[in-house]
Amino acid sequence: MEIGVKKSEALRQIKELCGERATDARFECVLYSRDLAPVPALLVDPLFKTVPDLVVRPTGAEEVAEILCLAGAAGIPVTPRSGASTVYFDSVPAKGGIVIDLNLLKGVLELDEDGMTVTVKAGTTWSELERYLNAKGYAPKSVPSSAPASSIAGWLCMMGYGIGSLKYGSLLSQVKWAEVVLPGGEIRQVTADTDPPLAWFAASEGTLGIITKLKIEIRKRTPMKHFLLYSRELSEMAGVLTAVKDAKITPYNLHFTDEACVKAMFRQGISPGNVDSGCLLAIDYEGPEDELNQAEEMIASLVADNTAVSFLPGDVAEMEWEERYKSLKLKRSGPSEVGGEVFLPVSRLESYLSDIKRLSGRYGREMCSYGHVATPERIIIMTMFFADETRVFEYVMDLSLVKKIQDVGYRHGGYPYGVGLWNTPYLGRIFKASELEQLRTRKKKLDPKGIMNPGKLYKWHPMLNPFNFSLGMNVMAGIRRFMRGSVRR
């Protein structure tokens, strides 16, 4: 009873602290109980409390610190949230409590043109930062493909790879320091050399503290050249992708689209150059003119030496670049898309896609794949298929195919990109046992009361343990395969 009183008193004090920027109205709190993933209530409600008791919108680190102090004293779970642009429930409560909405922490604080850095508030989106920098002749070194929704801090708290990462590295490598409010309410500026170090908060998914501002490296806004290659042969395009990736001049962006995805876009009338089959490779360079000219000569030579690969018109390549943040445009065939995002070795791309094609035929779901080359060794590849969340039973069965996609990725050396809640059954694939133990040690050190985003990243829910999860998903997949003749798209 005492704990309940402490909780209610803490919530009252937080409401008093934030005034109109705090709400416990059921209608508003329900809006924070999901992200981009349309997961049926029958899979969520028996296991998790996703509707928060309170939503607060702080205006700065000091207010965040006060909220965490009050929440910690009462043992109230806290879930940080900004763009909520993932499908893993990273920013959805698993145990109710408080959601801290960081969307009021917006804006650029300082542009250091001599040091080539910018200091920015955590809730600023990447598109907002990009517009600000572009107007002054600068640009971020890299951005997520969800830039219009993804926040600066949110992307660091994920894995931080996307457009530009192939050339400039992960976001972690570009951050000079971050201001973090620790679970006990202490405000720290963390760097590569502090205790705790900055690296602990990268890919921590809001489980170690709340980032309120960051100082990150930027680049000059330089000219760009865009190329879009087409081939009917997957093997030929995979070879060109590898050659471009390993060339002397590193592309800023290297994006692959498979044949199933091209066909789906053609049916919707949005295929680049009205291409109806085959696969596409978008190659984007930025830099000085002489470097761009060398890159163009290299690409032209590759195409000249490979009759199975050809250029699409330059204006089409330019348009694809302009559409770079609209990767979910296929959803217009909806009502839903379901899929798995895999951090895959580039060398296994062709074999992965071949297995996905077989999986697609086995279950009667057309599976489309596209991805960015994130590092010289890895590609972030999204494989998805259309589903109908309004047909609940069929939709639940469809969710089992996400595991089948991840299984294909695992066979080819890949693992899920991001953990959150729904990918916790794959922890053994994502981390070595020693790495997972190290993560849990960090959690105990910084958050001994376990209030920060509980239920995520470190351990699966008992009903999501790998054995139960695998068995359940495989049974559902068997039912789904039997149902394949009844599927409508």
Automatic annotation (TrEMBL):
Enzyme class: oxidoreductase
Cofactor(s), names only, from the UniProt record: FAD
FAD-binding PCMH-type domain ranges (all copies): 48-221
Protein name: D-lactate dehydrogenase (cytochrome)
GO MF term (any one): FAD binding
Taxon lineage: Bacteria, Bacillati, Bacillota, Clostridia, Thermoanaerobacterales
Pfam families: FAD-oxidase_C, FAD_binding_4
Signal peptide residue numbers: none
This protein's UniProt keywords: FAD, Flavoprotein, Oxidoreductase, Transit peptide
PROSITE patterns: FAD_PCMH (PS51387)
Similarity comment: Belongs to the FAD-binding oxidoreductase/transferase type 4 family.
